[in-house]
Amino acid sequence: MSKTGSITVTIEGSNSSTTLPLLGGTLGPQVADIRKLYSSLGIFTYDPGYGETASCESKITYIDGDAGVLMYRGYPIEQLAEKSDFIEVCYLLMNGDLPNKAELEKFRKDVTYHTMVHEQIRRFFDGFRRDAHPMAIMCGVVGALAAFYHDNLDINDPRQREVAAFRLIAKVPTIAAMAYKYALGQPFVYPQNKLSYAANFLYMLNTVPAEPYEVSPVLERAMDRILVLHADHEQNASTSTVRLAGSTGANPFACIAAGIAALWGPAHGGANEAVLKMLAEIGTPDKIPAFIEKVKDKNSDVKLMGFGHRVYKNFDPRAKIMKETCHEVLAELGIKDEPLLDMAMEMERIALTDDYFISRKLYPNVDFYSGIILKAMGIPTSMFTVIFAVARTVGWVSQWKEMIEDPSQRIGRPRQIYTGAGARDYKPMAERG
Ligand code: CMC
């Protein structure tokens, strides 16, 4: 980050003004450094939802929303989705560069060494209702990891940070699969370290003691791609939550549990589940036009789930790859007529030609297709956001590590415009109306 210029802020009608530095990164717009704005002019900035605020310096992920660009550590997402795999992407996100063969092998071992969870964690599950949403279980059990692995909770020790990161990346899929099995009433499945990250996850989800289970290479590849595409997305709501929680010095397991909670919402990670619910509610293609009218009605709060993005105002590059993967998976599974996919395609066609969506730059996002793929793979909708959480854990962990290692890091503490009552005196009960 370097100074690229300056900006002068003048309060209209007064003589007060100040000059603030403009900062630039490798790519992206310049940023006004407002750190001295309050001390020099006595004013704060107002930016609900932080849409125009850079909350940190980061070297991990770059998005150009207008051009539809997403890069991890400078590598375009399209190349990573095609040529890399999830475990290599994890190394890249965490370490800044692609590994050589030995580094990748060591990293793979370091992660797989931690795939099992403490046996006592099984007992935790007994406390949940069988019909609990698996994201509720994820929030609880991932947060509880701090109670089991407190030997490595000194966030100021780089080695302890690294071990906590490996534990999280390795154990989150195991916990996710346990949450799934618990809802089904089936026994938990121990991880198989000889399998790839994606294959092991599918294995833990789908294996039952009574039947052999072979992971299909096409489904393994599809799951791997879903994981790669969701691995990081710069300062989105859940990542910012992880950073905010981490800025207080909270332990990494607590921070990732906070990220899981933020991801759960339907405007964020919960959208893939919401897409399928929406398609099921619409029911048949002939009802799509009426639904679209409802979405466009200012007086309704109905949204077209899987459409729109805070940052992508052209297309979501992840959605393009997901669309291709969706067709590959349906072909592999021999699904020729998938009514939900037909409905999704029709919806996409109508929305992309409708002025409401065009003028607001609303395009399909990654979640528009990922839900259809997961459904075709036999995964129930309640697990969709959990799979997003499995993928995003490495992004959260990498961003958390970067934040802890950033010397300019301070506790996150936004300000506000207060619009409540002015100062007033307490009234005894007898004097209140
Ligand atoms: N359907 C209908 N109208 C929409 C939609 C939508 N999905 N998204 C935005 N709009 C409208 C919005 O009502 C507003 O209209 P107007 O200008 O008339 O008031 C305009 O488009 C601008 O929207 P906004 O609310 O300012 O956009 P935002 O950046 O605050 O919200 C979003 C982004 C993702 C929360 C929103 O587009 C949305 O709720 N989409 C549906 C949920 C979804 O698919 N989320 C997944 C995002 S991708 C996965 C991830 O990274 O988490």
Automatic annotation (TrEMBL):
Pathway: Carbohydrate metabolism; tricarboxylic acid cycle; isocitrate from oxaloacetate: step 1/2. Coiled coil: none annotated. One of its GO terms (molecular function) is citrate synthase activity. PROSITE patterns: CITRATE_SYNTHASE. Pfam families: Citrate_synt. It catalyses: oxaloacetate + acetyl-CoA + H2O = citrate + CoA + H(+). InterPro entries: Citrate_synth-like_lrg_a-sub, Citrate_synth-like_sm_a-sub, Citrate_synthase, Citrate_synthase_AS, Citrate_synthase_bac-typ, Citrate_synthase_sf, Citrate_synthase_typ-I. Signal peptide: none annotated. SUPFAM superfamilies: Citrate synthase (SSF48256). Keywords: Acyltransferase, Transferase, Tricarboxylic acid cycle. Belongs to the citrate synthase family. PANTHER family: CITRATE SYNTHASE (PTHR42871:SF1). NCBIfam families: cit_synth_I (TIGR01798), PRK05614.1 (NF004126). This is Citrate synthase. It comes from Sediminicoccus rosea.
